[in-house]
Specification:
157 residues, mainly alpha, 6 helices
Length: 157
Amino acid sequence: MSIPDIIALLPLVYLVIVAIPLVVIDIQQHRLPNKIVIPFLFLSLVSNILSYGLAGEWITLAASVGFPLAMFILGIVANYYNWIGVGDVKLLTAVMLMVGIYSPVLALWIPLISVACGVLLAVIQMLRKDYGRSVPLGPWILVSTFAMSALALVPAW
């Protein structure tokens, strides 16, 4: 295992450690605390830059950082309209940076899967006439992140 490979695993190890507290807090309080998400965001960014920088893969680095940056900008616009929480935006950006280390293309699936699951849950709530409750998106972000990480890390058959 090379140094870039070890660096690439650091954000995943951190996420595995904090995933359960994040899910519990998001379900109970509908928030994702900065003291957990911001260090993960910076760890993912630095690991991404170091991993691809040490390998000299500049185009892949641009894609693996550019996609999450675009997601962050879209997320801030969506937050302005109260469609998504800013904690969800930060977490989505961080997990896209993390998965982008392994596969920038797989990182694009995370917001799509997460939001689709959240919308499905909201529709179920509406059908049950359970109006006025927001859907915690954090658990769905983490489920889709671990699924995409598994796809990226499992060797091709």
